[in-house]
Amino acid sequence: MKALVVDDSEVMRKVLMGALSRAGITDVDQAGDGNIAVEKVKSGEEYDLILMDWYMPNMLGIEAVQAIRAAGSTIPIIMVTTEAEKSRVIEALKAGANNYIIKPFEPAAIVQKIKDTIGG
Questions:
Q1: 75: domain CATH number?
Q2: Which domain holds residue 54?
Q3: What pTM value is reported for the model?
């Protein structure tokens, strides 16, 4: 399994990579903003899961999700964000996200979200 972690915070990318490792996913690529994530997906890079932050420079995570879906990709995407309002959760799901987790989170909670999203 290969995952893409998209967050403008290097610290948060490391936290998410640790959570992925706990879920048994150690092949992890990183992107610091939505533009880079979209380019990686469009370039044909094969991912089994994307963890996407909402607020990033250059391109918001929600816009990146929309662009990835518009490109025809069905890679499971989990939004990882501080946005806790129900309307934002609905917006992310309508944009094409498969699941949603609110920061801060317990490592076990994100491991469970990953399992819920991709099975296992």
A1: 3.40.50.2300
A2: 2-118
A3: 0.95
